[in-house]
Every structure is written in C-alpha cells, then in structure tokens.
C-alpha cells in the first residue's frame, strides 16, 4: 500500500469513528419517549396539537377552545415564535368520544407533536393524559376539570380548576353570599363532572352548617325531570345546585320554574354559554341564577380586554371561557418551554410546576397534583346577560 492509499484509509477510519461517536452522543440526548431531543430542538417548527369535539353535542366547547388556541398561536408566531421556532398547530375532531380522542392523540404524536392540549371535556382528557404519561409527551387540558386527569401524572397539567374545588366554592357562596339554610341538588349520575361537583357541594354544605334537604339524580338521556323536581319542591330549598353542561341546564331550568320551585339556582362552569341555546322566552326562568366560572367579559384588566377585542375582531363574537382557557394554555406552554430552554418533556414539566403564570383566566401556580391554584369568578345571569358578581375562593 503506498502512502496516498494509507492516508486515504486513515481518513476513512477516522471519519467512521467520529460518525459513530456522534450517533452515540445523539442517542444519549434522546428523551424517554425515544424522540431525539437534539433533532427536535433543531427542527424549524415546534409541533403542537389538540383533539377536541368539533362536531357533536358539545362541539361549542371544542370550537371555541380551539379558536382561542389559534389566536394565541398566531400572536406568538408573529412575535418570533418559541425559542425562535414557529408553532405548528394541528387540530383533530373527537366528537367528545374517548376512542376518537385516543386515536387522534396517537396520530399527533406520530406526526411529531411535542405537546398536546386536550381533550376538552373530562373523559377524553383523562384518556389522553393516560396515554401521554406512557409516551412522555407534555399534556395540558385547557378545560378538563375531573380531578384524576392529572393526579399522579408528572407530565399532565390543566389550565382549568377542578370539580371538587367548584363544589366547595359553590357551597361557600351559597352560605356566605346567598345566606342559604337549606340546599338541594339535581345531578347527572352519568357525568363524572356533575357527580364530582355535587359530591363535594353536599359534603361542604353540611360542614358549613346548611341542611341538604334533597339530592336527586337523572341520566344523560333523560329529558323529563318532573318526578325529581316534585320531590325537591316539597323540601322548599333556598338554593338548588344543577351541576351539568349548558345543553342539559337549558332543558332543566324551565321545568324547575314550572314545578313551582323558587330557589336560587347555582351551577358550575359547564353553564357557560347556556344563554346561547336557551329560548329567550325562558330567560325569566334563569334570571338571578349564579354559576362559577374562570373568565368574565367584565374583567377590567387591560390584557383581558385586549384579548376580548382581538378575539371578537377575528371571530365576530365574544370569547367564551373555553376560548380564554385555550388561549392561556398556549401561552402557559410557551412560558414553560422558554424557562426550560428546551422542548424536552421532563424539563418543560419541571418548568410548569415551578412557574407563576398570569393569564386571561387569572394568575396561578400549580399544586402537588398539577392543578392550578386560582379563585373562581361568580357570574350572575341578569336581563339575559352574564354579569360578574364576585371572586370566591375555597373556604
């Protein structure tokens, strides 16, 4: 072998050695999901996505939450993105169904999503959270309130407060603000959301010295509540809790008044937008009712008012609470990624747990179960409109 050949072989061997070392280093940088973190951080865009009900009976929640998300994505990209990368957003329709939500989640992860924001209602959110834990993907539900969505899951978070918190807040409000001595409950036994709020409301009402005079239930497919309401009327409660989503509330409320019940009606954040589907002829039935929420159009905060104006300009309507929560979720993730300096799941999750976030739905930090510590905004329905009443915390 001449000198030129010896030199060429030596260069090739050195090149092969360096390439092997380089591959070994990259493998060492991979996160536990098998994704190459170095390559992900070096990509031109940061992929995020959501599974939401864009059709079906709860589509209003998914559409408005995603509208808020898309508004935030546009703003962030216009301002330079996250760590210098544009956010690449994908939204998929799950119709509010668990199986579709998991299928959508798997598709998003296969396509390289570094974070998934959803589902929207609690059961699909829980299913996605359980999958995200196995894949080590950052998961944030904007609106899922069921307590076990995040419990025991290091990389699962939420922007909304939880069902037990709402139950306690509503019991406290009934006692301190409404002066109730006797309370009643009409709950949806098919809904974990409804049951979660109602259980804690009953427990805390008794603890706060109120008498729970009736605790009635119904199923998802029920449309006639006459028997339950007859029993409640006979107990003459001061307050009646109806912890369900807006479409069911719109069915129940007129029947409450037809049954001759004069109690003040209270509800959880699922009431948001109930006026949009309640026939105006029934507005009198819901007049003077209250529900716990996380956002109000009457918030004087300059940041909130800018969000409302921008949303209305883009979509031609006022934002719902779900839109505000979706919007906050994107900025929450942005703040965590920038604090972590990487999109790697563990680092972003650690950053989320340690930050203080100031958003459209309030300022909060996270507790030990990755639930935001925040107050509730009580909304009163007056003259066919939502009016901010007060801010209430758990007692």
Report how far the terminal alpha carbons are from each other: 87 Å
Placed side by side, the strands forming the largest sheet appear as 7-6-8-9-10-14-15
Please describe the biggest sheet, giving its number of strands, its sense, and whether it closes into a barrel: 7 strands, mixed
Q: Could you state the oligomeric state of the chains shown?
A: single chain
Extended strand count: 15
Main structural class: alpha/beta
Contiguous runs where pLDDT drops below 50 for at least 5 residues: 1-40
Percentage of residues in DSSP E strands: 15-25%
Number of helices: 13
How would you sum up the global shape? Answer: globular
Average predicted local confidence, pLDDT? 90
